[in-house]
Amino acid sequence: MSQVAEQPGVQREIHTEAAMLTFGDMLAKALMPGSVVYLEGDLGVGKTTLCRGIIAGLGFSGKVRSPTYTLVEPYEANGQRVFHFDLYRLGDPEELEYMGYRDYFDATGICLVEWPERGKGRLPMPDLVVRITADAGTRSVGLSANGSKGNIVINQL
What we know:
Layout: E1 7-14, H1 17-30, E2 36-40, H2 47-57, E3 72-77, E4 80-86, H3 95-98, E5 110-114, E6 128-135, E7 138-145, H4 148-156
Parallel strand pairs: 2-5, 2-6, 4-5
Antiparallel strand pairs: 1-7, 3-4, 6-7
Helix pairs in contact: 1-2
């Protein structure tokens, strides 16, 4: 469950991995520098796939790795810095301090954070919360805005 008071957003049904990548590409076009995006959902629902679509949509043409063991993978796409976090293996939110997480969350980079609840109390508030649920092969992707940046994203989708 997210730790923010969100505004109503957008709901989409996604039926294939390719469609999830395409939705990520659309989302990338609406994000702006300094955006913080929380991605919530159970294991295997497609959070990393959506991140791959976003990062590719921003213009990164290389391989997008899951940061499950490294906790964060940095990318540069067309001059835009992107940081993909996966906090699933984070034992304690204080561990974020040891990795210098504050340096990633500035006005210039885009931060995509999987499992944000594991960093509760340390992470900045998100501009956008993406919740993914799965049911019988279909993914339901819900987006909620938290502030003006999030509202701009939602209005562009």
